[in-house]
Amino acid sequence: MAGNPIAPETIALSVVVPVRDEADNLQPLIREIHAALSGICAYEIIYVDDGSSDGTLTRLAALKAQDPRLRVLRHRRGCGQSAALRSGVLAARGPVIATLDGDGQNNPADIPRLLAAWQALGAGSARGMVAGYRRKRKDTGWRRLSSRVANGIRSFLLKDRTPDTGCGLKIFARELYLALPYFDHMHRFLPALVLRAGGQVVSIEVDHRPRLLGHSKYDTWRRLWAGIVDLLGVIWLQRRAQLPEVEELGGRPEYREPLP
């Protein structure tokens, strides 16, 4: 299914998938990732188990034993999606990161198209992000409505020019992500943080599928109150941003210093 082992130094893309209690979705999604990336580039898949209480870790261990491209990280206790994402990016051996949710609603077949769009950014790709846009969401009416309202408020206040920051499908350079300020729930504000760092953000429409297995961890009211606090924090970060244009005497070209 996964092919032969690859040398770490040749890995071009690391696919990071945070999961919690998604035992039934593991094998089908991993199979789809392999099918989508076969022949595209040298890649690895990193699953981060964020303190699952079902059989997720056991199944991941069994899948890893048969799959030389699969790596498994584990949080002993649940720390949230942003922490799991960061653990995966820190461990990644590829210079480019693709992320997607582990519930099977993101379609891995979209990854090559997003990767091509990221590469089309050219010299600016190391400072840019391509984000998926779930125009036709396969969720409940309440979830679609709450997300639409949240996206509208966020977009109005942050001016991030991104219609769907909640989509798990994203492509970005590892070095760019690690230069961003880290905080809990930061994954909801990645486009705004990339723009703050002087990068580009491009949104591409992607497929969205209904959840077929497992149970959603979506909690509207908890996300609402946490999101308000986080939104105020990101507004503060934006207002404190500085992007100096740096030039070294002696003829070296200018570069833009990354934000801490």
UniProtKB/TrEMBL annotation:
GO terms for molecular function: glycosyltransferase activity. Keywords: Cell membrane, Glycosyltransferase, Lipopolysaccharide biosynthesis, Membrane, Transferase, Transmembrane, Transmembrane helix. Residues 14-177 form the Glycosyltransferase 2-like domain. Pfam families: Glycos_transf_2. It comes from the Bacteria. PANTHER family: UNDECAPRENYL-PHOSPHATE 4-DEOXY-4-FORMAMIDO-L-ARABINOSE TRANSFERASE (PTHR48090:SF3), UNDECAPRENYL-PHOSPHATE 4-DEOXY-4-FORMAMIDO-L-ARABINOSE TRANSFERASE-RELATED (PTHR48090). This is Dolichol-phosphate mannosyltransferase. It comes from Candidatus Methylocalor cossyra.
